[in-house]
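Bumping with the actual sequence this time:
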Amino acid sequence: MLKEFPYEENGILVCIYNPKLEAEKRNHAMDKQESYKPEEAKYMGYSLIYHSTSLKKMKS
C-alpha cells in the first residue's frame, strides 16, 4: 500500500505499508521481550519518505 500526502509548502510525504516487513519486525521484537513495547508495534511495517521533487507516483 502506498499513499501520498502534501507536506510542508512544496513537499510530498509518502507512506508505504509492507505487511511482510511488519511480520518480520514483530517477530524480531518479540524475540527480545524485555525491550518489546506493544504501543510501538502499531508502526511496524510502515515507512515514511519525504521528497520535494517533481517525481510522481508510478501507476501500477
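The C-alpha cells above came from a reply further down the thread. The longest strand covers residues 11-17.
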